[in-house]
């Protein structure tokens, strides 16, 4: 798991700006993050870059439960850990998220 355990939290937007199961790109501290809100309300933040060797964005992927399906290569990625599921291999960098007073905060 590559979730950062510490860091400064930055505001990413109001929770209502993040539609369930639809990714959104947020730039924080010069980094492009793909932010996803699962249907159960859990919010995840990932580096907006697929671990596939050919590269590409993740924000346009499809969310099902706590999994993301890479939009270009259909790799299944666990949004809790960033781990690509077998038979594929790889890791997506994940970032801590907290929600306070309707505001989404992401640590980088």
From TrEMBL:
It comes from the Bacteria. Keywords: 2Fe-2S, Iron, Iron-sulfur, Metal-binding, Nitrate assimilation, Oxidoreductase. GO terms for molecular function: 2 iron, 2 sulfur cluster binding; metal ion binding; monooxygenase activity; nitrite reductase [NAD(P)H] activity; oxidoreductase activity, acting on paired donors, with incorporation or reduction of molecular oxygen. InterPro entries: Rieske-like_NirD, Rieske_2Fe-2S, Rieske_2Fe-2S_sf. The keyword Iron-sulfur applies. Residues 10-106 form the Rieske domain. GO terms for biological process: nitrate assimilation. This is Nitrite reductase small subunit NirD. The lineage of its organism: Bacteria, Bacillati, Bacillota, Bacilli, Bacillales.
């Amino acid at each position: 798991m590559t979730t950062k355990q510490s860091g400064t939290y930055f505001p990413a937007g109001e929770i209502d700006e993040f539609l369930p199961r639809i990714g959104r790109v947020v730039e924080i501290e010069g980094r492009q993050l793909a932010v996803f809100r699962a249907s159960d309300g859990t919010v995840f933040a990932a580096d907006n870059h697929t671990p596939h060797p050919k590269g590409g964005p993740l924000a346009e992927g499809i969310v099902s439960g706590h999994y993301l399906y890479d939009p270009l290569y259909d790799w299944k990625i666990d949004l809790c850990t960033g781990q690509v599921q077998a038979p594929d291999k790889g890791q997506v960098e994940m970032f801590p998220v907290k929600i306070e007073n309707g505001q989404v905060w992401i640590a980088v």
